[in-house]
Structure formats: structure tokens, C-alpha cells
Write a structure and sequence with these properties.
Elements (H helix, E strand, L loop, with lengths): L10 H4 L4 E4 L6 E3 L3 H11 L6 H18 L11 H15 L5 H14 L6 E3 L3 H10 L3 E6 L5 H7 L8 E4 H4 L6 H11 L6 E5 L2 H9 L4 E5 L7 H6 L5 E2 L5 H10 L3
Parallel strand pairs: 1-4, 1-6, 4-5, 6-7, 7-8
Antiparallel strand pairs: 2-3
């Protein structure tokens, strides 16, 4: 077991951070439109009328069930990420009342392609400026994400790939966050000790706790909604980021905080 890293308040005095690893979805990027709207739009283009709200609700059910039955894109069970996502789309439409799989399959294939294109995504406010400033400060940056093989193309299309030394996905590594092996692999690739690295992400179990479990430091990106009591009690205020634009001031704060 790795000892818990020092508090965010004290770590700058005890070490020099060399590596920042980043989650992507809902940390650096988000979808331009809700999933239900994207699915409904593609269905309409293929002659099917399905309510976006119904598809959105059905997607959440289908995604949750698929993730439980076939974790990490079902790679260990003989699936590919493409097949995994096609099955999610088929099940989504089935739950929304469309039973004709033959009619939905071309929609699923189109959605898979479209979700690899930059026009489907948008860079969150402050993300690129923060990445740029981190590089200026001499920090190495890398991605650690529970994404599939399309992530490289998405980041390239949005102009963000250049900021990262490498992109490590759960599909490529075979280990989804919070599995400690994906974080250890990132540290191995960067040749950096855990105590000299920090991870930034929006998921308490996958990002914040996952990174800390291997001895890394971590920051949790939080939205405007109130935090769950358990999270609020276990994450120090200095490690909470209301937005990515708060990361640089947080790093500055670490440098001037008394030990």
C-alpha cells in the first residue's frame, strides 16, 4: 500500500511537481449537445422520429448496464470498443421504443464516427489557457482517461494534443480508472515518482481517489452544485477546483503556503 500523499497545502514545500495527468471528458472537454439530442438528430436524418428526452434517459440506462456487463469496452470478453458502442446505441433505441435493430445499426455507426470528430465536442472554458500556462511553467502533461481509441483524433482536431507528452486511455492500457495500474503505467511512461505527480479530474472515485491510491496528488474539478457530504469531508479545500482556471492560482497558493 502506498502511503497517502501530503495535503495539497503542504506539497509544494516538500517536493517539486514534474507531471500533471489529466482526465478529459467533463474536465477538458464536453459534448456540444446532450446525448439524447445527438441521437435524435441522427435518427431524424435516417427517417426515424424519437424524442430526445426519451433517448437521453434510455442512454443512461443502456450505458450503465453495458458498463456493468462489459467493463472497459468488453476488451477482456472479446469485444472491440466500436462493437461496444454500437451495442449501447442499439440498446438505447430499443429502450426508447425502436425495436428494429437493422434500421438503427447505420445510425449507430454514424454516431460512432461523429463522436470522434471535433465538431461534436467543445473545449471547456479556461482549459487551453491552463494547459498552455502549465507547459510554460515546465510541467509535463499527460492524459489518463477512460476513453477509447478515438481520443487521440479528438484532441488533435480540437488543437489540444500538442500539450501532452502522451495520451493513455483505458482501452490502450487495458485498465480503467480507478484501477491503480493505469496510473502506474502513466508514471512509468513519464519516469516520474508518484509523489512528484498530480492528477486533475472531475470524478471523485475514478480521478481523485484513484490517483491518491498510488501516492499521487490530485485535484477534483467540481461544478456549481453542492458537493456530497462524504466528498466534502474527505477532500481538502485546496484540492477543489470550481473550474480549471482555478488550477494555476491553486498552484501559486501551494508555492507560498507555509509548511
Amino acid at each position: 500500500m502506498c502511503p497517502p500523499p501530503p495535503s495539497c497545502r503542504h506539497m509544494a514545500h516538500r517536493l517539486q511537481l514534474r507531471l500533471l495527468t489529466w482526465d478529459v471528458k467533463d474536465t477538458l472537454l464536453r459534448l456540444r449537445h446532450p446525448v439524447g439530442e445527438e441521437y435524435a438528430s441522427k435518427a431524424r436524418a435516417h427517417g426515424l422520429e424519437v424524442e430526445a428526452a426519451s433517448l437521453g434517459q434510455a442512454f443512461r440506462q443502456a450505458y450503465r448496464a453495458q458498463s456493468l456487463s462489459f467493463p472497459n469496452y468488453g476488451l477482456s470478453q472479446g469485444l472491440t470498443s466500436h462493437r461496444w458502442w454500437v451495442d449501447v446505441v442499439l440498446q438505447t433505441f430499443y429502450l426508447a421504443g425502436v425495436r428494429d435493430a437493422q434500421a438503427v445499426t447505420p445510425i449507430a455507426d454514424q454516431l460512432y464516427e461523429d463522436f470522434s470528430k471535433p465538431f461534436t465536442w467543445q473545449v471547456l472554458e479556461g482549459a487551453e489557457a491552463t494547459l498552455r500556462e502549465c507547459r510554460k511553467r515546465g510541467l509535463r502533461l499527460a492524459v489518463v482517461s477512460n476513453f477509447d481509441q478515438r481520443l487521440e483524433d479528438i484532441l488533435m482536431g480540437l488543437g489540444l494534443r500538442e500539450y501532452f507528452d502522451f495520451v493513455l486511455t483505458s482501452e490502450a492500457s487495458g485498465w480503467p480508472k480507478p484501477d491503480p495500474r493505469i496510473f502506474r503505467e502513466a508514471l512509468r511512461l513519464a519516469q516520474v515518482e508518484p509523489a512528484m505527480a498530480a492528477h486533475i479530474g472531475d470524478s471523485y472515485p475514478c480521478d481523485y481517489k484513484g490517483a491518491r491510491a498510488v501516492g499521487m496528488h490530485s485535484f477534483l474539478v467540481v461544478g456549481p452544485e453542492p458537493l456530497e457530504a462524504a466528498i466534502k469531508d474527505s477532500v481538502s479545500q485546496e484540492c477543489l477546483l470550481p473550474s480549471l482556471s482555478h488550477l494555476l492560482p491553486a498552484l501559486d497558493h501551494l508555492e507560498v503556503s507555509p509548511p
